[in-house]
Amino acid sequence: MMHIQLDFRSGQPIYLQIVEQIRQMVVSGELRPGDQLPTIRQLATDLRVNFNTVARAYRLLDEAGLISTQHGRGTYVWEAPSTESPQQLRWQGLEGLMNYCIQEALRLGYATGEIRQAFEGQLKTTEERDYDEEERG
Questions:
Q1: How many domains does the chain have?
Q2: What is the pTM assigned to this prediction?
Q3: What is the rounded CA–CA span in Å between residue 119 and residue 103?
Q4: How far is CA 132 from CA 49, 101, 121, 122, 124, in A?
């Protein structure tokens, strides 16, 4: 059984937590090429999350070439990640976080212009803080 620990209070979407932990298991050698993963339904039950959440995580891992789902046979670790796969997963993770924040803001009634302004303001504040910390050394 895979040991995946989810933080439901984290700002990171659950499907991205699953993706990252499976990727780490492959990178560390805990999961090797050819190892079979639990079915989507089984992992969803084990983690007590929605079936679609696990399906989305598996789809991202499949698109990154880390796993392969063979209809009727199961889902297997395909290969150890190349240098591109972690970057691709990392980028998809960032996109997922951004989408989550945008959708939440829209749900709360903010306009896209307000969201853009808040994002740019926060990014500028972060850059200034990082610059100040570098200056203080």
A1: 1
A2: 0.64
A3: 13
A4: 42, 27, 16, 15, 12
